[in-house]
Design goal:
Blueprint lengths: L1 H12 L2 E2 L6 E2 L6 H6 L9 E3 L2 E8 L2 H12 L5 H13 L10 E4 L4 H7 L3 H13 L2 E2 L4 E3 L11 H8 L3 E3 L9 E8 L3 H11 L6 E8 L5
Parallel strand pairs: 4-10, 5-6, 5-9, 9-10
Antiparallel strand pairs: 1-2, 3-4, 7-8
């Protein structure tokens, strides 16, 4: 009884504030109420790219946009768990959730990582992996081309921008099922190029999941 009392007391003293509503949160960086308001997508894949199903956990609307941008640009690394939990809620409803996967976060060029100081998709992938007892591998596929930001480009320019952007290090591949992960799906050009790069080596056990599907596709 006494131990439980002190645990409860500590939780009240060392609470966090919800990033979305700014109220005290005892459930991490996003409170339960705000988490439950996040709009989940349908269970069906939002895209099939080269026979690879791509799932999107939600829509890139006001709240989801705030969370992803805060993690990506404002060093709010604690939000990686909240986003991973949201993604996992949809993932557990897919027919693939019973399989074992190695997660491949969307590769970030070393120059971009140095500028930002961290890889936000890798943080998401690690939290998602803990929830599912998966592995994460950010060495199997690397980004060898420092591409321009995709949001500045048209759909056609995005494809050209990404051509040859990734390298599949086949000597590291051990036959695992691969789960590709990214934060946002807009045109799908990045995911398409990533899948194409992998498929060259006749790797077919692939799925993909993103945090949000953009409602402003180009």
């Amino acid at each position: 009884m006494l131990i439980n009392f002190f645990r409860q007391l500590l939780s009240w003293i060392y609470f966090e504030y919800c990033y979305l509503c700014k109220k005290p949160s005892y459930n991490g960086a996003v409170c339960t109420e705000c988490h439950n308001k996040l709009t989940q997508n349908t269970i069906a894949p939002v895209k099939i790219i080269n026979n690879t199903p791509v799932y999107a956990s939600g829509f890139y609307n006001e709240d989801t946009r705030k969370l992803i941008k805060a993690l990506k640009y404002y060093n709010k690394k604690q939000l990686s768990l909240s986003i991973a939990v949201f993604m996992n809620e949809l993932w557990q409803q897919t027919p693939h959730s019973k399989e074992h996967f190695c997660i491949i976060p969307m590769p970030l060029h070393k120059k971009r990582k140095k500028q930002r100081g961290y890889d936000h998709v890798l943080l998401m992938a690690k939290e998602f992996a803990r929830l599912n007892n998966y592995e994460v591998d950010n060495k199997l596929i690397t980004r060898v081309k420092d591409t321009k930001p995709q949001y500045e480009l048209t759909k056609e320019e995005r494809k050209e921008n990404l051509t040859g952007a990734f390298k599949f290090n086949e000597h590291l591949y051990k036959g695992q099922n691969l789960l590709l992960m990214d934060d946002i799906l807009t045109s799908g050009a990045s995911m398409e190029e990533l899948i194409k790069t992998i498929k060259i080596f006749e790797v077919d056990d692939i799925c993909a999941i993103v945090g949000a599907e953009s409602v402003l596709k180009k």
